[in-house]
Amino acid sequence: MQRQFLAIAITIALSLTTLSASAALPAAEPTYLQNEWSGRGQCLDVVNDGTNNQLHMAACGQVSGQQWTLRRSEQPGYVRLHNQFTTGARCLDVVNDGRNDKVQMAACANASGQLWKVSTVRADRRYVRLTNQFTGRTRCLESTATGLRMKSCSGDIGGQRWRSEFSPTM
Question: How confident is the model at residue 47 (pLDDT cuts 50, 70, 90)?
């Protein structure tokens, strides 16, 4: 299973950085995003609260709020993260609130806060790091006890090490 994930992570990372802007994006299968800090039984989830579509880590299950699709953007090397629950109309976005660079779902647009770069973690190639065009390469998507934020990248922080599973690991 580790070898299969490693191959998938490397393929995704390399494909995203080497495809030309005019190449057609292959149909992407929904995936479940988990991180080292939260554990294998927790998945990135969109809360079904009617309007806010807040994000949190939740017990993995076969629910649409945990199914993510990475779609290549117009910017070479970047993807948008769409969620099945929001029917693909909303994207993972970073809001500049002056302090926290909060992560939320927002209507998909040509916005730098919705452009994500997927990079393999050098210390452990089973994981990838998610950075954002808006916050730059030095800030990574991190899951913490208080939610999801963009934080200074560090190879030692488990909340910044993400893995993609095509079926949830519970």
Answer: confident
Give the pTM: 0.79
At 3 the pLDDT is 41
- The residue with greater pLDDT, 13 or 135, is 135
Task: Report the chain's mean pLDDT, rounded to a whole number.
Answer: 79
Q: In this predicted structure, what is the pLDDT of residue 25?
A: 33
Domain boundaries, the chain: 2-19+45-58+68-145+153-165
**CATH architecture for the domain at 2-19+45-58+68-145+153-165:** Trefoil (2.80)
Q: Three-state SS string across the chain, please?
A: CHHHHHHHHHHHHHHHHHCCCCCCCCCCCCEEEEECCCCCCEEEEECCCCCCCCEEEEECCCCHHHCEEEEECCCCCCEEEEECCCCCCEEEEEECCCCCCEEEEEECCCCHHHCEEEEECCCCCCCEEEEECCCEEEEEEEEECCEEEEEECCCCCHHHCEEEECCCCC
